[in-house]
Amino acid sequence: MTELEAAPDTARELLFGDEWEYAPAPQSADHVRLDDRYGPFIDGEFREADEYFPSINPATEETIAEVGLADESLVDDAVGAARSAYESHWRDLPGQERAKYIYRIGRMIKEKSREFAVLESMDGGKSIRESRDMDIPLVAAHFFHYAGWADKLEYALPGPGHPRSLGVCGQIIPWNFPLLMAA
After folding, report:
1. Angle (deg, nearest 10), helices 136-149 and 95-111
2. Cα separation, 138 vs 23, whole angstroms
3. Alpha-carbon distance 114 to 131, whole Å?
4. Which residue, 17, 60, 74, 162, is most buried by CB atoms nearer than 10 A?
């Protein structure tokens, strides 16, 4: 008989010999529905990729979904689609009109905040409390902030002329705050 087996129940509990029991999660992962696989989102649609990698929930080590790796040709397609949208529509769109789109993104994030918080927690391994109470509200706040500036830039910046967009840009999103970084 080992020392742990011979110890009284209270001593065993103090030695952490029994499995830990946790309270149920305040937000269920069952609340979100995901497809098994997502390709790169280019020009309004998901595209197939040659290669995929698993996005793994660090708490359960289960695959959340497979995510497509964009090779050089898919990156070129994405930049080309963004450039085409910029030249045909976005470049000449006044700040007031751009603000409507940015506000809408912020509103949609607030409307789906529960789902986003669960997904951010599953994907990054952070607590639901941090995702729900800090990250997702900050994401929405960032969109609202920048939407509020969209029609004020010509009055806020010194110098002649009007502020203008510069075109297409790209961003590498880190694994630990993907939605917050995108905002």
Report:
1. 170
2. 27
3. 9
4. 74
d(CA 116, CA 183): 13
Condensed to tens digits (0 to 9), the pLDDT of residues 67-125 reads 999 999 999 999 999 999 999 998 888 889 999 999 999 999 999 999 999 999 999 88
pLDDT of residue 158: 73
Q: What is the rounded distance in angstroms from the CA atom of residue 44 to the CA atom of residue 16? A: 52
Band of residue 155 on the pLDDT scale cut at 50, 70, 90? confident
Distance, in Å, from the CA atom of 74 to the CA atom of 80, rounded to the nearest integer, reads 10
Distance from C-alpha of 173 to C-alpha of 183, rounded to nearest angstrom: 11
> What does pTM read for this prediction?
0.77
69: left (phi over 0), alpha (psi -120 to 50) or beta: beta
